[in-house]
Design a protein that fits this description.
Number of domains: 1
Shape: globular
Largest sheet: 7 strands, mixed, barrel
Oligomer: single chain
Order of helices and strands: EEEEHHEEEEE
CATH superfamily: BH3618-like
Strand order of the largest sheet: 1-2-3-4-5-7-8
Number of strands: 9
Strand content: 25-35%
Helix content: under 10%
Number of helices: 2
CATH architecture: Roll
Amino acid sequence: MATPVMTEPETDTAFVEFVSAVPGFPDARTWGMEVWGDDPSSPFSVMRNVETEGLEFVVVSPFVFFPDYEPELDDATVGSLDLTVAEDAVVLVVLTIGESIEETTANLLGPIVINTRNNRAVQAILHQPGLSTKTPLIGS
């Protein structure tokens, strides 16, 4: 008698675990990350919460649109992620999608930082002047 083999469905979803709650969502700790849209080379991703259906954010690397962006993480944030080298960090920013690309904004003040070695993540709160939670994605 053959034994059924259980396999995981193939997926392009990467999962991250937030070490502290995303502000405003205290129970949302585990998130899946997928490319947004049909183009696998798209810089945009969707971050979907595993615990709450429908809770999702569009994120993008800030360096695509803001090449001079230099987030400075405090020691507590770096320690919570167990980051030892900067090369292990991925930085993303949450977008607020507008009616058009000109109305879409990025939260540069609260980037998502992921340690790619352990998939731990945090939404950092930066204390750098000149950064905003509603920076126009283009045309700024």
